[in-house]
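User: I've been going back and forth on whether these two constructs are worth ordering. Before I decide, could you fold them both?

Assistant: Sure. I'll take them in the order you sent them. The first construct and its C-alpha cells:
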Amino acid sequence: MKLDFLNECSELINNRINEIFEQQSSPEILKKAMLYSITAGGKRLRPALTMQFYKALGGKYEDILDLACAVEMIHTYSLIHDDLPCMDDDDTRRGKPSCHIAFGEDIALLAGDALLTLAFETASSNKGDANRVLKSVNILSKAAGMCGMCAGQTLDLESEDKQITADNLKEIHKGKTVAMIKVCAQIACAMTDADEDTLKHYERYCDDIGLAFQIQDDILDVVGDYKKLGKPINSDSDN
C-alpha cells in the first residue's frame, strides 16, 4: 500500500521529469530509451524520501524537487546498467523488457550514462542557496560513485561463486542499496543546514530502511512471484 505522501511526491516528480526532458535536445532514440526506463512505473521511493525528509526539516517540496529528481535519475541509470548482460543479465524490469532488450545494449549503455550526467545537470540547477546546493551535489556524487553504489556493485560482482560472511553481505548492501537511500536524508539535511545530531539519526533510520529493503528483495528473488515483481526470480542464485 502506498502512503499518501508517496502518491503526492510521485506526481510532482513525474511532472518535473517530463518538464526536464521536454527541455532537452537529443537524438530521438537516446531520449526515447531514457524515458522508457525512467517512466516505467517505479515507486519513486528515493526522491519521495528526499522530499519528505526536507519537509520534516521545515522545507517545501518544490524547493528540493530537482535534487529529488536527480536521485531518481541515478537510481534509474543504475537499473539500466544492472540489467545488462555484463552485470545481472536480466531481460525484464518492472514487467517490461529491459532497456537493452528494447533498444540494444549500445543504446541502453548510453541511456544509463546520459541519465547519470543529466542527474548532475538537474541537481546543480536546484533552486536555493548555492553553497547548500553545491554541498548536496557533492554528497550525491559520493553516494553514487566509487565509495558508494558503484563500490557495492563491484563487491557484489566479486562475490559471485564465493562463500561470503554476513558482514561481507552487509557491506555489499550498504553500497548497492543503502547509500542511495541514505543520501536522501543527507541531501535534505545539507539543504537545511541541519545539525549533526539530526543527520546522525536520519542516517541511522536510512541504514535500517536500506538493509530491510535489500533483505526483502533478496528473499523475493527466491520465493517471489514474477507477475508481482515484474522482474525475473532466482537471478541471484543463477548468477
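The second construct, handled the same way:
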Amino acid sequence: MSDFPAFFAELPADIRLHYVDTGEVKGGDDTPILILHGLVGTPQTELANVIDWLQATYRVVAHTRRGYGLSEPKPRQFPVNFYHLDADDVIALMNVLGIRQAHIMGYSDGGEVALIAAGKYPDRFKSVAVWGAVGYYGPAMRPVAQNVYPGTWMSEEEKAIHSISDPAFFTLQWVQAVRYIIDSGGDLSASLIRNCRVPVLLMLGEEDRLNPVEYARKLASNAPDGRVELLPCGHAVHQEVEAEFKEIVGAFLAEVAGKS
C-alpha cells in the first residue's frame, strides 16, 4: 500500500471521508485531478500507480468513498441511488477543499460516479476520463453483475480494510441495487452526460466481461465531446496495460490543456 499524504474531510450529513492529497505542483497544471476507486477498493490499494504517475504534474485528490476503508458512515450501504450519493459527495468534498474546478477520473464503480458527477455538475469539471465504466446498465450486464454475489472472490485483506464481516450480505446489497437500475431502464449517466461540455474519455478492455463496448459507445455518442478507446485487456485497464493507459490519458490531458 503506497504512502501518500492522507487526511479526513467532514462533510454535511455526518459524512467523513478519508482522502489522499498530493499537494500543489510547482510548474504543473494548476487544475487538480480527482480520482475515484471502484468496488472494495481505496485510492492506496487500487490506484497507487496512477496517483504516483500523475502527481509529478498535477495535484491529485483521491478520497475513499463513504463506508469504505476509513471513511464513514459505516458499514458501506447500497441504496438504489448510491452512485448519485457518491457523486454528491465528490462535490461536497470539492467545496470543503475549496476546489472550484477539477479534472475527474474514475475506475469501475468510481468511473460511474465520475460520469454522474460530471453530468449533474458540469461547471465543476474540465475533463472526464474513466475506465471500466459505461454509464448505462443494460440487460447484458445482468448475469455478470449477479456473479458478484456471494463475494467469495473477496480477499481477506479487502474484507479487513472495509470491515466486511459478511461478504455475501455486502455483495447482495450491491447486486440488488444494480438489478434495480437495470430494471428501471439502465440509465446511470447516459442522458446526464449531454450536460457535459468538456471532453469525455471512456477506456474499456476488449475482454472486460462486465461492460459491453456498445454501452460505452452509446454514452460517448450522447456526450458533446465523447470518445471510446478499446485496449487489449480486461477490466483493470490501468493495471493490465499500464503503459498504454498512461499514453492515452497523458495525451488526453495534454489535449484538454491545449483547448483551455
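Notes on the second construct follow. The chain has a mean pLDDT of 96. Strands lie at 6-11, 15-21, 33-36, 60-63, 102-107, 125-131, 200-205, 226-231.
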